[in-house]
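Residues and backbone
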Amino acid sequence: QQQQQQQLVKIVLARRTAIPWQSSTSDPQQGTTAASSSSSSRPGWQRSSGTVLLQALQERDPRAYQLYLSIPPGAAFLACTPERLYVRSGRHVASEAVAGTRPRGPPGDLEADFYQGLDLLQSPKDHAEFTVVRDWIKQQLTPLCVQLRTEVQKSVLKQSSVQHLYGRLAGVLKRGVGDAAVLAALHPTPAVCGRPREEAFRYLEDHEPFDRGFYAGPFGWVSGQGAEFVVAIRSAMIPAAAAAAAAAVVEPAAGAAAAETGAAAAVQTGSQGQLLAYAGVGVVPGSEASAEWQELCLKVRQFEGLLSPLLSPPIQGLPNYVMAWATLLVEELCRLGVSTFAVAPGSRSSPLALAAASHPRSQLTVAIDERSLGFWALGFSRGNPSGMPAAVICSSGTAVANLLPAVVEASQSNVPLLLLTADRPYELRDTGANQTIDQVKICGGYTRWSSDVTPPSDHVPGRVIVSTADTAVRYCVTGPRPGPVHLNFQFREPLAPRSSEWDPDQFLRGLEHWMQSAEPYTSAIAGQGSNTALHPATPCYTHQQQQQVLGTVQPQPHMQLQQQIQSHRSNGHSHPQQQHAATVQL
């Protein structure tokens, strides 16, 4: 054994971490979603399918490669990997060496992030680990290529939460050399196995106590014109749901191989109800066990961070109405596709900032100056390919006034922009302080829609804030003139996550179906012309059920307002803004 260890230049050890997983299961006959009673009050993304988790990984780290493989009966394997094994276009081929890891600096702290990368570049241990991988790839590609060059000798590859040493080699393949020869030459690289390869194989077979399954395997595509393969590190095996066996579909040609390779892991995860997360570290002479263990924890953190709500109390466990209100708002916005939040520090807006920072699918940008932050959000919204806006979170008072220039630009350019501003409740407004100014109509006519949202209380159900978010995004994005929308939130104390008496059951009443899904509460459906309507995603209620859920409704004001609207239209006045004003008044 000592002789074998002396022959190894590098060995990559993997760790498998079991994380509790509560996936939703679909009844193929009823088309409904079932979940255990213990998780009935958790939002859908906390018990959702692997595809929703994959989308969250992609939103968190768009620079990485995401892959997903469905495995009968109902299990899945997914990965969010930074490592590309090789890419080919015609006869031109390129491969990448990735090794060494450091965490990214805190959000917005460019100096700390720079010094983390500098420490990685100057580390002798990480340099030795990286050069082993880079030189081995060069050695393997040289016999296959007419010419080979090193395009990137050594640099830093930055991802959402970690950064690595990175190198790139490119060349031209000899005639007759195909993808099978390239795969056989490159996989597995010393970045996932070790060097020498055969000695590393034997060492792992003797000492690694579990089957890696698909972990560190090559995933990609091949065509006559090109090919691309990545290495499935930072991966996870999702357990099979008992009722989802008929829903899992795998291509017949790949079904047998996938089932055989992933059977053991799928059965194990299905029986234990656990997600198995995989990560590895390279061990070279000079490695320290404690540092390597910390690196493993850092690499698994992307899954633990996304799934951490599974281990924490559900919405019913939140400390007060204000935090539950803000949590529902951020959750619904993320379901609608608004997952980028531009946050300006402030006391009154702390519930919104904390909810955005705690959500696993959110991306935060923090800036002290609200005017600069507003223009950053405007630029993001203008260039976002999905067409969804960034949401700007800021405190009350003059901070909101600093957003007006960006709002005007967005309005004139038809660029969607969502403002989430905190405010005093109505009884504390206009008391003479700068933070108590009237900010309800501060943007004037430059917004497509605005709402002064009532303070959270035991008299206001949570579905109010969820449907308000749906309406805001609809006015912001859809229609002939997308543009800015302003939601002004009245918050009473406690603003911090401090325990306060509240009734979660009453607050969440009417959201039962929403809690069991990963879909928005309502969705916009196209009508005639440019009009849109909101279609509830929840089941329809009878009149008696509506009275039980919503309480007794007094129809007189509603009927009077409808008569006024009809009379107004009959007189030939059908301006959309006038109709909209009547609706807001209702």
Remarks:
- Residues 289-311 form the longest helix (23 residues).
- Residues 104 and 110 are 9 Å apart (CA to CA).
